[in-house]
Every structure is written in structure tokens, then in C-alpha cells.
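Bug #77: duplicate submission created two jobs. Keeping one. Sequence:
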Amino acid sequence: MVERVGIQGAKVKLIVNGVDVAQFFPALEEERTILPSVWQVRAEDFIIGTVGRFWPVKDHANLVLAFAHLIKNIPAGQRLPRLVLVGDGLLRGRLEELIHTLELDHLVWITGWRQDIAQLLRVMDLFVLPSLAEGTPMTILEAMATGLPVVATRVGGVPDLILEGKTGVLVPPANALALAKAMEMLFCDRELAVKFGLCGRENILQNFVIDHMIVSYQTLFQNFLQLKRRR
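Kept job's structure:
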């Protein structure tokens, strides 16, 4: 607003988005019955997921390619991770073709449009956002409120949300190998993944609670009204 649009700095106030932490919270018990029964998921299985419309800017194809790289690097005999793509949209058909071509049908679940996002997040172990561009994505805030570590592309306002090396990992956009490497690190080091998730939850509680956002808006409007009355 200041640098590009030219609005005076004194007229600009940043109010960060807030999350309803009563709705988005870490899993208290096993909720994985929501996952496809054919997967026969065990408690120790690693579930990677993302939430968003299937649109070019979200770059789900890069996530699928990265997941394919991850699968290739897992030693024979080890339980394979699963990928949950929550959403739908324009590119669903192409994504399904790519998943089939890479022979990942048995490891990837496209959920379609859902209303139970909070529950779906609670069955994940890692949240990934592979976007080419973003503002301040609520999905990252919701994932961190759920206690998930986050791997995301270094675009838009994403670096303002992720404390790199503490709550998640940032990677270049459109780079499947870098994305795969970051996912592999957290897949192999479950303790680190849990630690990132706990730090992310704490970051949300300190800085991104919806009640704080509401108070900030109330204060902004009250100050504006008082200024108008003086005039």
C-alpha cells in the first residue's frame, strides 16, 4: 500500500488474520477412520496433505511430482506415506491423469469439496502448500493451529507466517525436487515434525488468534469514529 500504491504510512495499519483455535486444534485421539479404508492406515503411518482449489496458481501438480520423488527414495519394505488433496476445481482431471501416470493411485486421495476441513487436518502429519503465488494463506494458519509442521513455497506473505527451522520449511516455487527433499526430511524425522507442529501451534496462540483480530478491527473502527467526531 505504501510502496506501490502510494498511500501515506500513517494511514495504513496491518491487522493479521486470525484462526478459530476452538475449531482448529491438534488431534486428541485417533480420527483416521475418515481416510480411505483401502489404505488400511496404521497409527504410525505418515499422512501428507494440502487444502485448496485445483487451480494453476496452487500448483498441485508440483506437489504430486514431489510426492512421486519422495516415494522413490523410501527403502523397500518401509511403510509408504499417503497424500491427501483436499479440494476440487478446474484441474482435477489433469491431476487424476498425472497421479495415474505416476502409478500413485493407491497412495493419493482426492477428497473433492469438503466441509470438514478441521477434521481432515487432524488426520495429517504434515501440511504442504506448493503455491506459485499467495497473499496470507489461511490454510497455513489453520494447519499450524492444528499442530502440523508446514512445508510451503517462499511466495507472497508465506514467509511472514512460517518460522523457518522452527515451525516449518520454505522451498522455492515450482521446484519438485526441493519440495520432495523437505517432505522427506520430516517424514524421516518424526520427532522434528512433531516439534515443528508444537511450535506452530504456540505461534498461532500468541499471534494469530481470531479474538485478537476482532479486537484490532474494533479498535481501528473506534479510533476512526473518534477522529471523525473531532472534525
